[in-house]
Write a structure and sequence with these properties.
Two copies of one chain form a homodimer. The first copy, chain A, is an alpha/beta fold. Chain A has two domains: 173 residues, NAD(P)-binding Rossmann-like Domain (Rossmann fold, 3-Layer(aba) Sandwich), CATH 3.40.50; 85 residues, 6-phosphogluconate dehydrogenase C-terminal fold. Helix content of chain A is 55%, strand content 13%. Chain A contains twelve helices and nine strands. In chain A, the strands form two sheets. The first copy, chain A, has a six-stranded parallel sheet with strand order 3-2-1-4-5-6, sandwiched between helices. In chain A, helix 5 links the parallel strand 5 and strand 6. The longest helix of chain A is centred in the last third of the chain and has 28 residues. The two termini of chain A are 24 Å apart. Chains A and B meet through helix 7, helix 8, helix 9, helix 10 and helix 11 of A and helix 7, helix 8, helix 9, helix 10 and helix 11 of B.
């Protein structure tokens, strides 16, 4: 049970967390704060939060937990703004898609990573955004990755673990670097590729005709290129090294495949496509089985 | 009205064409042929065709139209097998995803492209395959591209146009090179990228963990990597030059984006992502409007 929970940033992610915890009845009061008054008013109208304030210090006074639910790059600013209001009994967590840059920022701001700071990343989202799109079941059967350090307070970790478990999520722990490397490969790289592909085609002189003949496969493949450009700009910048490394691994593989196509190496082309299909079918089948079991 | 229609290859594409034409009642008899007896037996059991034979010559005797509905590279072999059975009154069409290689093959086999050969490409498909997956509505509101040459018989063209129109498809004409270039960009390139990405991740030492954290965006993005590897191997080989050219355009754009990320060029990253999102949203919105109007 959390007595008072403060949420900074009432969008899809923060709003859905509030809804899930309210439904479960495991938090006494939820206070919203952030820079956009309209979102806070809307969140209270929708019953997502109990009250709101534009004053961060007021929001976290007497709070047990504060969740920084802003976009990735803004989370660093919120940490800095939190500094004068920090106390040992205030547990801090966040939802940023990149963990290394935020942990580095915490170290810069506080001198060391505060033991009551538990970095987190719920792997959930939607093409929609804003508190209006928030749902109490957004996290059900989704994964939440926490990246505690050696010095992280075990009680703080337990509270945040429990908070996410109450939303229906599966809570896992990973090292910061590992998190950022894995997410670069499975999420950040695909977004970069989709944006680059659509931009390459759109800048072609025959763009209109090219898109006219795009079928269902292309629509699925490029769906993530319709994601929020500002959010993804932030993520790519925050996770630069891991994103570049993922791009290089991919480009190396693509160059090998290009060479096979150019030299009409039938066996190599077929091997590559067959390996890829097998890997995708196998992993998604096993993931699906895990999900349905849950 | 087609009196006798022969279909070579009873899979999803050939089977769905047969079902659509039977439903519309615009063909008197459909004769199936091909190499896989089991598919032909199944097609007759399902009522997709009226009768079948393993003998291509027998299948096309007295036929008005023969549709080569085999995979891309096999279509060339079927054209060669058709040579001794060709007559001026037998209209020939096909469904191959690449048109240049098949037109070249026709020129090699017949000395010139026969005037009664109307190359075609229905832009429709499914992750499923086989005659069991065939549907009478597969082509409704989908595009079929015909790539006639200057010497193509206008009556033959009209018959094939009319045949596809009877399936509910929108029939368009394009030059062979243009078709292959546009399809390379919107279909062949995305498949190559999806296969390359999954293969790059699968060959990573932490593949299992990487796939474990793949979320919905990754699943959509890589769906086409679960497509039939043999079919796509054929397509990429048949359309080699246009595929290589598309890959190079993409790689150039990706390298520019990589440079922007490496130098932390915030404006350039944001511009690229924003342009891509706008292009995708705009084109798919306008395409959707066309589709709903039809």
């Amino acid at each position: 049970m959390i007595n008072k929970l403060a949420i900074v940033g009432l969008g899809l992610i923060g709003g859905s967390l509030a809804r899930a915890l309210k439904k479960k009845g495991c938090v006494a009061e939820i206070i919203g704060t952030g820079r956009r008054e309209a979102s806070l008013i809307k969140a209270q109208e929708l019953g997502v939060i109990d009250r709101w304030t534009l004053d961060l210090g007021e929001a976290v006074a007497q709070a047990d937990v504060v969740v920084i639910a802003t976009p990735t790059l803004i989370a660093e600013k919120v940490l800095a703004d939190l500094k004068p209001h920090m106390r040992r009994s205030l547990i801090v967590t966040d939802v940023a898609s990149v963990k290394g840059s935020l942990v580095d920022a915490a170290r810069r701001i506080f001198g060391e990573v505060p033991p009551q700071f538990v970095p987190g990343h719920p792997i959930a989202g939607s093409e929609q955004s804003g508190v209006e799109a928030s749902r109490e079941d957004l996290y059900v059967n989704h994964r939440v990755i926490l990246t505690p350090a050696q010095g992280t307070d075990t009680d703080a970790l337990a509270v945040i673990r429990n908070m996410w478990a109450n939303t229906g999520a599966e809570v896992l722990e990973m090292a910061v670097d590992e998190h950022d490397r894995v997410l670069a490969a499975t999420s950040h790289l695909p977004h970069v590729l989709a944006y680059a592909l659509v931009d390459a085609l759109a800048s072609n002189g025959s763009a209109e005709e090219i898109f006219k003949f795009a079928a269902g496969g292309f629509r699925d493949f490029t769906r993530i290129a319709s994601s929020d450009p500002v959010m993804w700009h932030d993520i790519v910048r925050a996770n630069r090294d891991a994103v570049l490394s993922s791009m290089d691994d991919f480009s190396t593989r693509l160059a090998e495949l290009r060479a096979a196509i150019e030299s009409d190496d039938s066996a190599e082309i077929l091997d590559t496509f067959t390996r890829a299909k097998s890997a995708r079918d196998e992993y998604f089948l096993s993931q699906y089985q895990v999900t349905t079991k849950e």
